[in-house]
Amino acid sequence: MVDGWIDVHAHFSPPRTAEMAAQQVERLREAYWQVDEPPRWDAESTLAYMDRTGIRMQLLSNIPMELEALRDSNDFGASVVADHPDRFGLLAALPTDDPSACLAEVGRADQLGADGFAVTSFYKGTYLSDPLLEPVWAELNRRKAVVSAHPDAYRATMGRPDAVFEVAFQTARTFADMLYSGVFRRYPEIRFIVAHCGGALPSIAGRLQLLGTERWVPNPHGITHTEIQEHLRRLYLDTAGTAPNGLAGGLAMTSPDHLVYGSDCGVPCTTDATMNTNLREILRYDGLTGEQIRAIGRNAFGLFPTAAARIATATEARCR
């Protein structure tokens, strides 16, 4: 369907024991997921899907809610990349409820050869706008890191899994509060990728610009109208689970060169059919030129130079 695209929003999961798998099914059903089996992930099946679709590389992420599991997951993800360096990249998960553990994992990412980082908007009761994360943002800013932000999709609201709609509002709340908290002002070198085309954030961007700096709105850092526009425009938005309508909202907030392809591959809310439908809708979206649509799958090359270099090295080797 495409040729040589990078997928920045793809998930993986380490191998599980039968007991762990059963526990995961139970947790999903408690959150109103209508499932009987846990999601399963393996590199071979994923590569087969990528080959059928034309995806050159997936940047993998997985963010467990316990520190030991998170560290083990990052180790496993690094081993997958080591086995398939030109097909997969790693976004190292960060435990953003604990700044010390978070900084330790940022440092460990160098040993793992991670291409960037993955965070959850709301992680174990802590939003990304929480002041306790200041040292983490400072270090990621120093590194000029790429940080992919994903909502916590495994809870339930109003009797339905959050993955259906609540994730969009969680994303909007989190990034609006990061805006007012001055995170984007203080740490301009971090490149944030916001999942699902920004969720509901593009829908409220105009309201933020219209009302967000009025006198009756708490604004302790004095964020200006111009900053609201500029900070939102600088965000990168992935296309996972949003086409066609999500693209229009995202493009009203940012520019075509800040759209990056995401499939949401590897999680229980995603199937080959939904990924293919989403991709087809992107390819025939009439709000962009053909060149701009093709660029959606390639804009990530500039964000992830080490991943792009691995692809280039493998391509050169095959051409010899």
From TrEMBL:
Q: Catalyses which reaction?
A: 6-methylsalicylate + H(+) = 3-methylphenol + CO2
Q: What Gene Ontology cellular-component terms does the record carry?
A: cytosol
Gene Ontology molecular function: 6-methylsalicylate decarboxylase activity; hydrolase activity; metal ion binding
What EC number(s) are associated with this protein in UniProt?
4.1.1.52
GO process annotations (BP): secondary metabolic process
One Pfam family assigned to this protein is Amidohydro_2
Output the superkingdom of the source species. Answer: Bacteria
Tell me which UniProt keywords the record has, alphabetically.
Hydrolase, Lyase, Metal-binding, Zinc
Which InterPro entries does this entry report, sorted A to Z?
ACMSD, Amidohydro-rel, Metal_Hydrolase
- The Amidohydrolase-related domain covers 6-267
Q: Which residues form the signal peptide?
A: none
Q: What's the protein here called?
A: 6-methylsalicylate decarboxylase
